[in-house]
Write a structure and sequence with these properties.
By secondary structure, the protein is α/β, with parallel strands linked by helices. The chain has helices at residues 13-24, 42-45, 76-89, 178-187, 214-220, 223-238, 240-246, 248-265, 269-274, 292-296, 356-359, 393-414, 423-437, 441-444, 466-472; strands at residues 2-9, 30-33, 96-97, 101-108, 113-119, 122-131, 153-156, 170-174, 193-197, 204-205, 287-288, 301-304, 310-313, 317-320, 325-327, 330-333, 348-349, 378-380, 419-421, 481-483. Strands 1, 2, 3, 4, 5, 6, 17 and 18 form an eight-stranded mixed sheet that branches. Strands 7-16-8-9-12 form a five-stranded parallel sheet, with no helix packed on it. The protein has a three-stranded antiparallel sheet with strand order 13-14-15, with no helix packed on it. Helix 4 links the parallel strand 8 (170-174) and strand 9. The longest helix has 22 residues, at 393-414. The radius of gyration is 23 Å and the shape is globular. Pfam families: Pyr_redox_3 (PF13738).
């Protein structure tokens, strides 16, 4: 059994940010446990055609690790290079334990530490445990009748098989969300025919992408210029919360912009009808794309709406609800992730053997989206209600680090061994979150989205400005915690 002061589960941006902040705090006795045979998280795993970030790259980066981006919305390959740069620049490579798939974790109250059981790498122990697996790490594939009978090729966008040549093939994409919106334009021209199965349409706005020239890239290498650009983008995007929460006229204005964009790019009235949402913009994730609508309008692309959706799957393709049989060579599952009820995918046992699964039976909840009563010294990066629909998730992650590092530093300075948020503090925080959520478009916009848990609570999003979350996590509030 290997013992460390801190264990970090996951090696994506959340895990990297935690590791670097530990190093800055003078703590180097830690390991990152990565289930795959490579490190880096989302942008090393998701390699599907067209994969790119939908937040401007200068903002979707760690504040302490600037990069000379080549375009405003970086593609997967550049984000992969950036991830590797961060790992190498901060000396994290030797801190990562690969092929360490966590099977379960248990709190030992007598020793005041966590035991982590992994497949392949045995057991680890640590005083502190930081879960940084991320909310978009557990792919979901719907269990359609006959799915296992299909004799062609099939895979989820999260596990794109690059050994398979999709060119000149009959392809179906199941789903129409953010990943599908990137895959469709990337492959539409190369396939024989593309069938897109849409459960509900998404609102789409143009993607204001641009390539940075050599001089602009040089400017991005200067920290003052980089910082200025980050803050300019940050405050521009922060105003979106006004529409999502505070101003119905602002929502209406953005929605009208989206409708004009749809009409301009989709001249076919029947296709436009299928692509027009019946809920308020922002209720589901807004797609930024200037190429999706033209791709859906191609002669070799067919959009199937809900009424023409999947009834069953057989050996050779899909049977639709209106009786068609569609012969296929490839089925691509672009059906998202278990991002709410499955925030942590492995079993967690806290004090007195209490299971996190039972605590979260109704819906996932956590103080600052980070800590839980009954689970001392456990911190969740991008936990319940830390998602952000209008700006960079990395801003939230860095904010969480202020609180996490302050907790660890406080225990070390006082010679104590455990810290646990008080139940009443968590309850007060959670009630505030869901009270504020009632005012948002995510709750009242007339849709059911992956932002919501099975209970109907919006779990994925934080109901306010990101700077408000930053203020809440700026420092530890001792009165909200029990230290021992």
């Amino acid at each position: 059994m290997q013992t460390f002061q801190v264990l970090i589960i996951g090696s994506g941006f959340g895990g990297q940010c935690a590791a670097i902040n530990l190093l800055k705090a003078g703590i180097d006795d830690f390991r990152l446990l990565e289930r795959r045979d490579f490190f880096g998280g989302t942008w090393c795993q998701n390699t599907y055609p067209g994969a790119a970030v939908d937040v401007p790259s200068p903002l979707y980066s760690l504040s302490f690790a600037p990069w000379r981006w080549t375009q405003m919305f970086a593609a997967q390959a550049e984000l992969h290079r950036y991830t590797r740069h961060v790992v190498e620049d901060f000396g994290l490579r030797d801190k990562v334990e690969l092929n360490a798939n966590v099977e379960r974790v248990e709190w030992d109250d007598s020793e005041k530490c966590w035991t982590v059981y992994t497949a392949g790498k045995g057991e680890f122990r640590a005083r502190f445990l930081i879960n940084a697996t991320g909310p978009l790490s557990q792919p979901v594939i719907p269990n359609f009748e006959g799915r296992e009978r299909f004799q062609g090729k099939s895979f989820h966008t999260n596990h794109w098989d690059h050994s398979y040549d999709y060119r000149h093939k009959r392809v179906a994409i199941i789903g129409s969300g953010a990943s599908a919106a990137q895959v469709i334009p990337a492959i539409a021209a190369d396939v024989e025919h593309l069938h897109v199965f849409q459960r509900t349409p998404h609102w789409v706005l143009p993607r204001a992408d641009r390539t940075f020239g050599k001089f602009q890239q040089w400017l991005l290498g200067l920290k003052p210029a980089y910082k200025l650009l980050r803050w300019m983008i940050y405050w521009q995007f922060e105003t979106r919360v006004i529409a999502f929460k505070y101003s119905r006229p602002a929502v209406h204005m953005v929605q009208q912009q989206a409708l004009r964009f749809l009409k301009r790019q989709v001249p076919d009235p029947e296709l436009r009808r299928k692509l027009t949402p019946d809920y308020t913009i922002g209720c589901k994730r807004v797609i930024l794309s200037s190429t999706l609508y033209p791709a859906l309008g191609r002669s070799n692309v067919t959009l199937h709406s809900r009424e023409q959706g999947i009834a069953a799957i057989d050996e050779t393709g899909i049977v639709t609800r209106d009786g068609q049989h569609i012969d296929l060579d490839l089925i691509v599952w672009s059906t998202g992730y278990d991002a709410t009820d499955g925030v942590i995918s492995y079993p967690v046992s806290g004090k007195n053997g209490v299971r996190l699964k039972d605590v979260w039976e109704h819906y996932p909840r956590a103080y600052l989206g980070t800590a839980l009563p009954g689970f001392p010294n456990l911190f969740i990066v991008t936990g319940p209600n830390t998602g952000i629909g209008h700006t960079s998730a990395l801003f939230i992650i860095e904010s969480q680090m202020n609180y996490i590092i302050d907790c660890i530093r406080t225990l070390k300075s006082r010679g104590l061994r455990s810290i646990e948020v008080r139940p009443e503090a968590e309850r007060t925080y959670t009630e505030m979150i869901h009270r504020e959520m009632e005012r948002t478009v995510w709750k009242s916009g007339g849709c059911h989205s992956w932002y919501q848990s099975k209970s109907g609570h919006v779990i994925a999003m934080f109901p306010g400005f990101s700077f408000s979350f930053h203020r809440l996590t700026r420092a530890l509030k001792p009165a909200d915690h029990m230290l021992s």
